[in-house]
Write a structure and sequence with these properties.
mainly alpha; 3 helices; UPF0153_domain; Proteinase inhibitor
Length: about 60
């Protein structure tokens, strides 16, 4: 997403299984490479993860 990804918008690089199509590739953005998933951020469900990340994006 050349102009960035707004909070709450699904990344265009996620496939149907919510896996990154750029994982392991040199064109993967630095911010994605640096992100380390953890239970505090990701929660126990996909919805919790989306809610948590949306909140973090909106406050930063």
């Amino acid at each position: 997403m050349p102009n960035g990804k707004p909070a709450g918008v699904r990344c265009v690089q996620l496939n149907d299984k919510n896996l990154c199509n750029l994982f392991g590739k040199s064109e993967r953005p630095k911010v994605c490479h640096q992100f380390k998933a953890c239970p505090i951020i990701c929660g126990a469900t996909t919805q919790q993860a989306l809610d948590n990340i949306t909140e973090l994006e909106s406050i930063t």
